[in-house]
Design goal:
The complex is a heterodimer of chains A (about 120) and B (about 170). Chain A contains 3 helices and 5 strands; from the N terminus they run αββαβββα. Chain A is α+β, with helices and mostly antiparallel strands and about 120 residues long. Chain A has one domain: Dynein light chain 2a, cytoplasmic (Beta-Lactamase, 2-Layer Sandwich), CATH 3.30.450.30. Chain A has a 5-stranded antiparallel β-sheet with strand order 2-1-5-4-3. In chain A, helix 1 packs antiparallel against helix 3. The longest helix of chain A is centred in the middle third of the chain and has 21 residues. With about 170 residues, chain B is of the alpha/beta class. Chain B has one domain: P-loop containing nucleotide triphosphate hydrolases (Rossmann fold, 3-Layer(aba) Sandwich). In chain B, the strands form 2 sheets. Chain B has a 6-stranded mixed β-sheet, with helices on both faces. The two termini of chain B are about 20 Å apart. The mean pLDDT of chain B is about 95. Classes of the chains: A alpha+beta (about 120), B alpha/beta (about 170). The structure holds guanosine-5'-triphosphate (GTP) and magnesium ion (MG).
Chain lengths: ~120, ~170
């Protein structure tokens, strides 16, 4: 498998494990989309915002001595946007509807983020 | 000491983070990520630079914006409540001038605050001088200053000038 195929497989597996996910984004740590299944027109902005959220989250975690950042969770009234740390080079972002089982999502997405760290 | 918020914006590689670092040293709160495309530097700001420092009787809350256009949603977030704007621009990157003009117009249309333009990297080959940048941006000559963002005393001189402008307008 090429790297691109492996990344696509990673997104697919995450979706299979957590069907309620409404979008998955793998982006570079500096906010460029790598692979994703969001609508194409939305992807650049989502990738940039994922990098901003994680970059700021990391800084808050170190400043408040929370230990290494795992993820940032944005929770709105009707949904979530969760961004997972995936090494120095990448981030994994997941969009979810409001009723999502966050525990399950964390479990699967953290595993995917670990895999991603090796791929990037 | 009275708090006073200053925003530093400008295109990528202008020296916004270098400016914050030379003023704040270890205290600078930065959000750098490794760059994934050729930018001529190792890291780029993805959220903001931040720090607090005294300037005369004021406590300046310094906020630096990311420079890459894809992070433009941060501009308004960071500009909220700012009393002065410093637009930094790399003199050796004239290709960034249109973007600098757009950024300045955009920010000033929404936040009409006292502003200065700082031209950095003047020691590098074929750099645009402050007077040329002033003409391009249609700003009075005295609103555009040259500085090396890596040098604390130069950064502090520019920040002090902007703080004085901000205070004058704010108190009026
Ligand atoms: N030679 C020279 N280098 C400078 C001068 N001012 C700043 N620099 C360098 O220019 C680079 C600017 O990079 P940053 O400070 O990351 O730029 P930035 O505006 O924060 O960029 P983004 O956050 O990516 O938008 C740094 O390597 C500085 O050391 C100068 O006057 N002369
Ligand atoms: Mg920066």
């Amino acid at each position: 498998m090429t790297r691109q195929e492996e990344l696509l497989a990673l997104i697919r597996n995450l979706r299979t494990a957590v069907p309620e996910v409404s979008g998955v984004m793998v982006a570079s740590a500096d906010g460029l989309p790598i692979v994703h299944d969001f609508p194409e027109a939305e992807a650049p902005r989502i990738a940039a915002m994922a990098a901003t959220s994680l970059g700021l989250g990391k800084r808050i975690a170190t400043t408040l001595r929370l230990g290494e950042l795992q993820e940032t969770v944005i929770r709105g009234q009707s949904g979530y946007f969760v961004v997972y740390e995936a090494g120095e080079k990448g981030v994994l972002a997941v969009a979810l509807p409001g009723g999502a089982n966050l525990g399950l999502v964390h479990f699967e997405a953290r595993e995917a983020a670990r895999r991603l760290r090796e791929l990037l | 000491m009275e708090p006073l918020k200053i925003l530093v914006a400008g295109p990528v590689g202008a020296g916004k983070t270098a400016f914050a670092r030379s003023l704040l040293g270890e205290e600078a709160l930065t959000t750098e990520a490794k760059v994934s495309e050729a930018l001529g530097k190792e890291t780029t700001t993805v959220a903001m630079d931040f720090g607090v420092l005294p300037v005369g009787p004021y406590r300046v809350h310094l906020f630096g914006a990311p420079g890459q256009a894809r992070f433009d949603f941060m501009w308004d977030v960071l500009a909220e409540g700012a009393l002065g704007l410093l637009l930094l621009l790399a003199g050796d990157k004239p290709e960034h001038l249109p973007e600098a003009r757009h950024l300045l117009d955009y920010l000033l249309s929404r936040h009409p605050i006292p502003h200065l333009v700082g031209v950095t990297r003047l020691d590098l080959g074929r750099a645009w001088e402050p007077e040329e940048v002033a003409l391009y941006l249609r700003l009075p000559r005295e609103r555009v200053v040259g500085l090396d963002a890596r040098r604390r005393e130069e950064a502090f001189r520019v920040l002090t000038q902007l703080v004085e402008m901000a205070v004058e307008v704010h108190d009026a």
